[in-house]
Amino acid sequence: MTVLVTDGHLPYPFGREMTGYEVPDLAATLKKAQAAGVTVLVPPFTSDGRDAALVQFPGGYVAEIHQTTQP
Q1: CA distance linking residue 69 with residue 71, whole number of Å
Q2: Please, are residues 30 and 16 in contact by the beta-carbon 8 Å criterion?
């Protein structure tokens, strides 16, 4: 399953690239990010062996933050 969060423009190659960041602890990272003003656009979900969330940073930058899950 792929989840796309968009402002009406699809990700690259359809018009907009999306960057992802791997972190060791998704829940802790999201907590710190929200305290710093980040908005969670899509709450944590599991897909393709990882837990991920889509966030928007102050200024509008949208990215995926994910944590690899153990098999």
Answers
A1: 6
A2: no
Measured distance CA(23)–CA(9) in Å, rounded: 27
- The domain segmentation of the chain, as residue ranges, is 19-68
What distance in Å separates the CA atoms of residue 9 and residue 31, rounded to the nearest whole number? Answer: 28
Q: Please provide the CATH number assigned to the domain covering 19-68.
A: 3.10.180.10
List, for residues 12-25, the tens digit of each pLDDT value: 555 566 788 999 99
Both tokens assigned to 49: 């062996």
pLDDT tens readout for residues 47-60: 888 999 999 999 88
Rounded to two decimals, the pTM is: 0.74
Look-up of token digits 């200024």: 59
